[in-house]
């Protein structure tokens, strides 16, 4: 458990929200593991009064979390479309060619780099999950199966693999040693290169009650103010910043080496001013999350209990990490939900952490036709509702829990 900020080292960490002790959100169980003791870890959210970084206090070793992983980005059509649109914008904008190199940290199964490759730009993925890195390699995406660090960046640079563009999508939240990570980005980036990062935006977490994005893999929750200070301390200047809707609200930044460009762009200055206005550096802004989460918990439990009392059968969609946080903190298990469905074959046949709900393929919803489905992967709501037209046409309904409980 940390006592100092992961970014600036300050000991001024103020409590924001406690979610108790929960299992690891992506540790899906086999049938044989159901009778074994299941490790749980504290899930405590705190705010750094000095650099504004919001973070959890527990650090589970990355090797335990990511060496084998159950999340494959390519099973989400939304993620693929998001990646393709970004790459097709960046290639002409940054004038990338067959002589360039596009690198992604936490490249998963090559879901993003494949689009660079299709446009003739050489690629290199860095992915610590051995099983996922192997899939990427099979798809022809050159991938280093390792954790990104300053040491690895130095090694790759010495091998002549410096990046014209480097991506990091939803990876910085997973990094226990932020300063070494950002120093590594500076090291591997060419003098005129660009770093493109996306992180879940802390203001959306608070405003949209996205407490379920808090789990042990997500160590940090970022504002632009935090990132601007962190990147500047390692010779990187954020030149562009924008809010994008993916994952319930994310922040996208573009950074360059400060010796090439040392002035933030207008979009950065504007968003920094907005953050100052809403109180990015004030503990009071974050403290309201506790009450809104409790209100949401009460609303959802009342609805589910009412439906069960009426004899309704309820399943869930999405064996996701955020789903694990919601189910475990709200105390939702077999007494309310019958099973979970998920599109990923890697998850099917396993059981959810803590709550031990069996995971089936999505076709189970039409075959079994439960009355309601709790949508745990609410961040892909539109995509899933479109995929489940048959279930809905037969009378099935979805319960969307975030940011407020509603029936779709």
UniProtKB/TrEMBL annotation:
Entries under SUPFAM superfamilies matching the protein: S-adenosyl-L-methionine-dependent methyltransferases (SSF53335)
Lineage: superkingdom: Bacteria
Gene3D superfamilies cross-referenced by the UniProt entry: 6.10.250.3100, Methyltransferase, zinc-binding domain, NAD(P)-binding Rossmann-like Domain, Vaccinia Virus protein VP39
Residue ranges of every copy of the C-methyltransferase domain listed in the record: 245-403
Alphabetical list of InterPro entries matching this protein: Methyltransf_Zn-bd_dom_put, Methyltransf_Zn-bd_dom_put_sf, MeTrfase_14, SAM-dependent_MTases_sf
Chain ranges of the Methyltransferase putative zinc binding domain: 5-66
Entries under PANTHER family matching the protein: BLL5978 PROTEIN, TRANS-ACONITATE 2-METHYLTRANSFERASE-RELATED
Name assigned to this protein: Ubiquinone biosynthesis O-methyltransferase
Protein's organism: Rosistilla ulvae
Organism lineage: Bacteria, Pseudomonadati, Planctomycetota, Planctomycetia, Pirellulales
